[in-house]
Specification:
Order of helices and strands of chain A: HHHHHHHHHHH
Shape of chain A: globular
Radius of gyration of chain B: 49 Å
Order of helices and strands of chain B: HHHHHHHHHHHH
Number of domains of chain B: 3
Number of domains of chain A: 2
CATH topology of the largest domain in chain B: Serine Threonine Protein Phosphatase 5, Tetratricopeptide repeat
Radius of gyration of chain A: 19 Å
Number of strands of chain A: 0
Helix content of chain B: over 70%
Oligomer: heterodimer
Number of strands of chain B: 0
């Protein structure tokens, strides 16, 4: 049976447009963008914003969710923020806090819609156009890619993750006790080659 | 290695516009390069999925035990008000019960003080005795009973019954019972003492003794006296909504 959910956060969404990003938040975005240790520090700050987490828990619990669902959505919202900022796709000009809250709520509605055939309301359709539709954790293709990545050796996984999050070869060499930055660069290349061959074998198509 | 870096730079939008255009022109004609770009794009996505997984793990293990805002403040207020109303109702019911109970003690009088207060030459002493009874002043009552006027008073037994009632009202049941026992031997006071003792037994809920005395008094051949006994017994059945008097 399909049922309709209302989108109760109209007021918050309006507020999101009005609230300008603060200097602190802009600094956090710059830190994520620059990658490496700065990104990790910025994410640590963001994941400890208790008010954001409390708002997400409140919204999801009042919309048929459990606390565990709220925690999942909180994590997914931060993952998306990190991914978009790193990829240079983060176009949101409002507060990061309101971005996280509305994204988490939207991801939750989307999950409910898929599981229980909840229909979109008008507000939710508008929101879908501007935000990602599915939580990364709920995307089967992403899970498949993660499975391929897990087939790499532990050191390869670490090298590629550090490189991708903005650590330079010197920092990678330091962290993973590799003899030199050049060696780290070579190892990264070999790991990337191995991953590409795994992807090629799996025969995946681009989304 | 250089090709791979170039592809990655293209996918991460790090090439200049001219470089991007040149790369895309090459892509259109080079199938092998297109496959390379496709594989590299998926490889980058695979790394991204692992980074996301790491981040999820970190977020979940972060020590940020946050509870949802409490939304039950209203219900607590309503519960408090409800509880207050319940307590007030209970208090009112209890005080009413107490007043009815107290009224029961006061209202019952086997002896009607006004019916003899104006008789004889000992009028002043009788009035004083009744006032002492109303105040519960047993010392004065005893003193008046021992003085000359009331010692010779022909309705002295009525006064003694009042005194017994005063003892009783003050909770001294033993003293009250002692007076009844003494008065039972006097022919004039016998009936009143028996009635008052019946009332006393009902009030103190000595049911066995009450039934025995009631049976005994019911056999008496005196219409008015039996009416009084019946009246007393009838009121007894209303307990606890009505007092036993």
């Amino acid at each position: 049976m399909a049922f309709r959910v209302t989108y109760p956060t109209g007021r918050d969404m309006t507020a999101m447009k009005d609230v300008k990003i603060s200097q602190d938040e802009a600094n956090l975005l710059a830190m994520i963008r620059s990658g490496g240790g700065a990104r990790e520090r910025a994410l640590r700050v963001i994941m400890q914003w208790k008010d954001v987490k409390a708002q997400i828990i409140h919204k999801i619990i009042t919309n048929s969710g459990q606390r565990a669902d709220a925690e999942d959505m909180h994590a997914e919202a931060i993952v998306l923020l990190d991914r978009k900022v790193r990829g240079g796709d983060f176009a949101h000009t409002g507060s990061i806090k309101s971005y996280l809250t509305s994204t988490a709520y939207f991801l939750w509605c989307n999950r409910r819609r898929k599981e229980s055939r909840v229909q979109y309301t008008e507000d939710m359709v508008k929101l879908e156009a501007s935000q990602v539709a599915t939580a990364p954790a709920d995307d089967p293709k992403e899970q498949q890619l993660f499975q391929l990545f897990s087939q790499l050796g532990q050191s390869c996984q670490e090298i590629l993750k550090l490189w991708m999050t903005g650590f330079n070869h010197e920092e990678v060499a330091d962290q993973l006790l590799i003899s030199s930055p050049e060696m780290a660069k070579k190892k990264k290349y070999l790991c990337m080659k191995e991953l590409k061959s795994l992807v090629a074998k799996a025969g995946l198509k681009t989304a | 290695m250089k090709d791979t870096d170039h592809i990655i730079a293209y996918l991460q939008h790090r090439l200049s516009t001219a470089e991007t255009d040149a790369f895309e022109r090459k892509l259109q004609s080079d199938h092998h390069l297109r496959d390379q770009v496709h594989e590299t794009r998926l490889a980058l996505k695979a790394i991204d999925s692992a980074i996301a997984q790491d981040l999820r793990t970190k977020i979940r293990s972060a020590d940020s035990q946050v509870s949802a805002p409490k939304r039950n403040k209203k219900s607590i207020v309503f519960l408090g008000i409800g509880l207050l109303i319940l307590l007030m109702s209970a208090y009112l019911a209890y005080s009413q019960y107490q007043s009815v109970k107290a009224a029961g003690y006061r209202e019952y009088a086997m002896v009607d003080p006004d019916s003899f207060a104006t008789r004889g030459t000992v009028q002043e002493d009788v009035k004083a005795f009744i006032t002492a009874f109303k105040l519960g002043d047993l010392g004065t009552m005893q003193e008046l009973l021992e003085t000359g006027n009331l010692a010779q008073y022909d309705r002295r037994t009525d006064l003694q019954l009042l005194k017994a009632q005063a003892h009783w009202q003050q909770g001294d049941y033993q003293a009250a019972e002692h007076i009844y026992e003494v008065l039972e031997d006097l022919p004039l006071a016998k009936d009143k003492a028996a009635l008052q003792q019946l009332y006393y037994l009902s009030k103190t809920r000595q049911e066995e003794a009450y039934e025995s005395l009631y049976d005994q008094l019911s056999k008496k051949d005196d219409y008015i006296f039996l009416q009084e006994v019946q009246d007393l017994h009838k009121h007894r059945s209303g307990w606890p909504s009505r007092m036993w008097y």
